Amino acid sequence: MALFPSFILSDESKERISKIVNMTHTVAHYGWIPFILYLGWAHTANRPNVLNLLSPLPSV
Amino acid sequence: MMLDYMDYISRAFEQSTNWNRDNSYANITATTSALIDFSVPSAFEFQVSNASTPFTFNTMRVSTRNVFNGSLTYLYTDADNLEKIVSDSGSIDLQNVTETYRYFQPFYNNHKLAAPTDGKTVGKSLYYGRMFYPNSNLEAMLIKTLDPHKQLKIKWLSTFDDFNILTCYWQRDTGRDSQEVIFSTNDLLCGYRFLHNFIGKPSKMKNSLYNNSSLSLGAELWLGLITLSPGCSTTLRYCTHAPNTGRPLTLTLKWNPIFGNLSSSYSAKTSSNTTVCAKYDFNLYSIDSNLSFGVELWRRGNSAKAMSQYQDVSQTFGKDENLMYHHLVPDLSQEQASPQTRKDLVEKQQLLNDLTTAFSSSLRKIDREKTMIEEFQNNLHHANFTSVWKLSTSLRDANLKVLWEGKFKGFLISAGAEVSKASPLLQSSSSEKLPSYLSKFGVQLQYST
């Protein structure tokens, strides 16, 4: 295996970086709406039921 | 099509943070597009929305045309007074959820109306997320007000098939000027938009004349850094009121120097229930032209509730009452002065009285004009509209769009159809008469609590 200078990334680190980027994307993609729900939950004084926040149907 | 619940909420956010959406180049021709280029629903769609707390809002949308699809939307904002601005679909004003004629007031009028900015609108934010079904794409948005005149908007469209677009908008609006810097990761697109309002500041000289017209000039510049493809356009807008009726009208002229497209439009509220718009497009390079018309017909419901509110407003000032120049005449009975100064004051008063008499007819005319415009606006603002018919046609495209929007038993319904001619490109022999067909048809139902 040839030795590269440290600033040229090896295939392994490239793969690792792309994996991290992909994972960050997935986390941001699926985490955004739970994050919004958390903000709404944390900002409301009486801490409503999570189901109330989730359901678009009028709560009784 | 009717405004989505979430668009309605984000407009309520703008209202709460005193952000004027009409003072932006992106919305300079909003009236024309609302009256002519409105979209017609193309599927059966149902939306149910709910304000689960005063700060969180959610919507579920299902729509079906051949395939079933839908989306779930959640929104959180920490803006104040939203519970007072947002109302449910039963009590909402139809003119607030329909894209219609946009009033544009001279900017100093807006500033007068706006509450004093005591830092309450600073640092407010809005978080929005929408997940689609079945492809689980995400649409996200974040708005943050940086100070009373600046806001930052970030939009993100995320999919798992290498299609991710992040767009940032930095917007600054001082009333007189509005600027916007845009950057998008799609083609590394950079944009700059500005709008300038040419109106004299209300000064000593101008106070006497009631000026309710405004002239705005705006332009946009775009450059995609990867493909190096440029884009630009410039627009002039003039808004005024008919002097004898107080009804508003808007004229716009848009020019795109790259494609040579020239577009002029005239829109007017011909009565409180009708709006008309005509648009003429002309291309300098291809000598193509197009003439389009759009009409809106509003229907009022039982106006008992609305009228009582409206009368409260209109009773506060009478039509013939002189609203100006009372303050110019000093009150002599309060003065304790020597005979000499008293004589001076009497002369001054005499002079002022003479002046007021001399100009009374023109002053009264200005007052009448102002009262008429305000009365017309109050009348529209408090009107209890129940439905609206929208029609638009374009001569060159030979199409006809019909849209009905209205309130029915607490639901907001929008139903429309578009009839257009088959594309001439598809026809081999051009001599044949092209058949018309129904290209779009759909119904949208909205319910919110």
TrEMBL record, chain A:
Species of the source: Torulaspora delbrueckii (Yeast)
Compartments where found: Mitochondrion outer membrane
GO MF annotation list: protein transmembrane transporter activity
Lineage of source species: Eukaryota, Fungi, Dikarya, Ascomycota, Saccharomycotina
Cited InterPro entries: Tom7
Family, similarity comment: Belongs to the Tom7 family.
Protein's recorded name: Mitochondrial import receptor subunit TOM7
A cellular-component GO term for this protein: mitochondrial outer membrane translocase complex
Keyword Transport applies: yes
KW Transmembrane helix (keyword) present: yes
Keywords attached to this entry: Membrane, Mitochondrion, Mitochondrion outer membrane, Protein transport, Transmembrane, Transmembrane helix, Transport
Membrane topology per record: Single-pass membrane protein
Gene from which the chain derives: TDEL0C04430
Signal peptide, first to last residue: none
Domain of life: Eukaryota
GO biological process: protein import into mitochondrial matrix; protein insertion into mitochondrial outer membrane
Automatic annotation (TrEMBL), chain B:
Pfam families the UniProt entry points to: MDM10
Alphabetical UniProt keywords: Membrane, Mitochondrion, Mitochondrion outer membrane, Transmembrane, Transmembrane beta strand
Cellular component, GO annotation: ERMES complex; SAM complex
Lineage: Eukaryota, Fungi, Dikarya, Ascomycota, Saccharomycotina
Transmembrane among keywords: yes
Protein name per its UniProtKB record: Mitochondrial distribution and morphology protein 10
Functional summary from the UniProt entry: Component of the ERMES/MDM complex, which serves as a molecular tether to connect the endoplasmic reticulum and mitochondria. Components of this complex are involved in the control of mitochondrial shape and protein biogenesis and may function in phospholipid exchange. MDM10 is involved in the late assembly steps of the general translocase of the mitochondrial outer membrane (TOM complex). Functions in the TOM40-specific route of the assembly of outer membrane beta-barrel proteins, including the association of TOM40 with the receptor TOM22 and small TOM proteins.
Membrane topology: Multi-pass membrane protein
Compartments (UniProt record): Mitochondrion outer membrane
Main location: mitochondrion
A single GO BP: peroxisome organization
Record carries keyword ATP-binding: no
Comment text on domains: Lacks alpha-helical transmembrane segments, suggesting that it resides in the membrane via beta-sheet conformations similar to those predicted for other outer membrane proteins and porin.
Assembly and interaction partners: Component of the ER-mitochondria encounter structure (ERMES) or MDM complex, composed of MMM1, MDM10, MDM12 and MDM34. Associates with the mitochondrial outer membrane sorting assembly machinery SAM(core) complex.
Record family assignment: Belongs to the MDM10 family.
